[in-house]
Amino acid sequence: MYALPELDEQILQPGVKGLPIVEPLRQHMIGSQHWNILAADTSLPVAVLKASALQHNLAWMRGFCERHGVLLAPHGKTTMSPQLFATQIENGAWGITLATIPQVQVAARFGVRRVILANELVAPADIRAVLHLMQEDHSFEFFALADSLQGVERLSRAVQDFGLVRPLPLLVELGMKGKRAGCRDPEEVMAVARAIASAPGLQLAGIEGYEGLVVTDNREADVEVVNGFLQRMAEMLKAAAAEGLFGGEQVIISAGGSAYFDRVAREFAGLGVQGKKVLPILRSGCYLTNDHGYYGGLTSELASREGKAAGEGLRPALEVWTTVLSLPEPNLAILSMGKRDASHDLGLPRPIAAHRPGGDALALPEGAVIDKMNDQHAYLRWPEGVQAGLQVGDLVGCGISHPCTTFDKWPMMLVVDDTYNVLQAINTFF
Asked: Maximum CA pair distance of the chain?
C-alpha cells in the first residue's frame, strides 16, 4: 500500500522531520520499527495519515464518480505525494491535476501519464519543459489552460520553434469577474477557442473553469452562482462544438474543486455534443484527507445535498500530534507545534484528543482551543477555573483546517492504523 520502489529503497538520515532515527534507515523499514504515536515513539510534532480514513475516502469518491458518470483528475497540489497519486489512480482516477510545471515533472517522474495543468502555461522555460516531456514520451498526455489571444500566440510559436510532432492540447478557461484567471465573458471564450483551433501546433481540447472561488456566508446564494457558472461552461462547450473547433474524438469539460463537486457532477454528467465524446472531469483534491475544519464543513454541506446516497461522507484523515512543553499559567499549555507544522490560513488547528505516553487517553479541558501559533509553538487555552489534568510531556492530537497548507510543511508523513501504530511513510515534493 502506497509504496513506490524508488522512494521505498531510499536511505533516510537522522534529521527527517517527525522521525526518531539516530542512524540511517531505509524507508521501507519504517513499518518494522514498531513505533506508536501514542507511546511518543516518534519525534514531536509529527503529522500522520490514518490509513482507514484514506481507504474510506478513496472508495467513497470512486463510488461517487461511478454513480454520477463522471471522471476524476484530483488536484495533486494538495499532497504532492507520488505514493498518494499512485493510489488515487489505482482507485479509478483518470489523471492528476497540477498547478506548476515542476509539479508536472515530479508526477511524470513517478509514472503519472495524464496531467491537467490547471493554470496558464506562459514562462518560456516551463513551456520548453512540457514540450520536452511530450516529445520524449508519446504516452504522456498533457493539457494546459488558455484565456488570452496573446497566450495562444506564445504557445503556438513555442510549439513550432520546438518542433513538437503532435499538437499541444489546450482548454479554454472561463473565469469570474474579480476572481482569478479566465475569460470573463462568452465572447472572449469563443475568440480564444477559435484562435486555438486555427493556431499551428495547438489543439482545442475542451472548456475548463473553477467554481470553488465562490464561498461566502450565504451558502444558498453561492450554490446558485455556481450553478449559473457551470451552465455557462456547458453552453460554451456546445457552441465551440457547433463551430467544429475541437480536435480529436473526445472533448473535456472540467471543473470541481473540493466544495461543489456534486453540483459539477450533476451539471456535466450526460452532457453531449454532436460527433464527440464528452469527458466530464472533476478536480477535487482535498477529498482524499478531508479535514476537521474548513473542508470538513464544506463536504458536510455537500453530503447533505447528496442525501442518503452520500452515506457516511468523507472522513478526516490528517492529524498533527504534538506534546505539552510547558504549563506556564493555570489555563495555558504551550505545545510543540507551530506555523511550520500545521495550516493556519483557513483556521487554526483544533485539539481533538489527548494521551499520556505509556498510559491512557486523557480528557481535554472543557472549552480548550488553540488560539494562537508562533513558528514552533501553539497556545492551548481553556476557561479559567476549569481543571485541565494535563502534564508536561502529555500528547495532544490536533485536527487541521486546510490540508494543502499542512502537507507542504512535511517532506514525509507517517501512515498509521486506528491505534496509531506506524505502518509506513509517504513522501511529498513541494
From this structure: 73
Summarised one tens digit per residue, pLDDT across range 45-80 is 999 999 999 999 999 999 999 999 999 999 999 999
- Res 215: pLDDT: 82
- Count the residues in the chain: 430
| Nine-digit cell string for 11 | 536511505
CA distance 203 to 298: 36
Q: What is the pLDDT of residue 1?
A: 60
The per-residue b/e assignment along 68-101, b for 16 or more CB within 10 angstroms, e otherwise, is bebbbbbbbbbbbbbbbbbbbbebebbbbbbeeb
Question: What is the count of structural domains for the chain?
Answer: 2
For residues 206 and 167, membership in a common domain is answered with yes
pLDDT digits (tens, 9 = 90+) for 113-144: 999 999 999 999 999 999 999 999 999 999 99
- Candidates 301, 329, 321; CA nearest to 313 is 301
CATH of the domain at 406: 2.40.37.20
98 domain-assigned: no
Is residue 150, in this structure, part of any structural domain at all?
Answer: yes
Model confidence at 2: pLDDT above 90: no
Q: Please state, in angstroms and as integers, the Cα–Cα distance from residue 350 to each residue in 138, 346, 371, 389, 422, following that order.
A: 47, 12, 9, 18, 22
User: Is the domain of 139 the same as that of 279?
Assistant: yes
Render 156-201 in DSSP notation, one character per residue.
Answer: HHHHHHHT-SS-EEEEEEE--TTSSSSBSSHHHHHHHHHHHHHSTT
End of a domain among 284, 300, 326?
Answer: 284
Q: Are residues 121 and 266 in the same domain?
A: yes
User: If pLDDT is split at 50, 70 and 90, which confidence band does 228 have?
Assistant: very high
Do 239 and 192 belong together in one domain? yes
- State the Cα–Cα distance between residues 107 and 109, nearest whole angstrom: 5
Give the whole-angstrom CA distance, residue 419 versus residue 421.
Answer: 6
C-beta separation of 140 from 132 below 8 A: no
| Domain encompassing residue 422 | 5-50+315-427
Tell me if residue 1 falls in helix, strand or coil. Answer: coil
Q: Average pLDDT, whole number, for the chain?
A: 96
| Residue 375 located in a structural domain | yes
- 165 assigned to some structural domain: yes
160-178: average pLDDT: 97
Helix (H, G, I), strand (E, B) or coil at 332: strand
Residue 276 has a pLDDT of: 95
- Answer yes or no: do 137 and 265 share one domain: yes
The three-state secondary structure class of 324 is strand
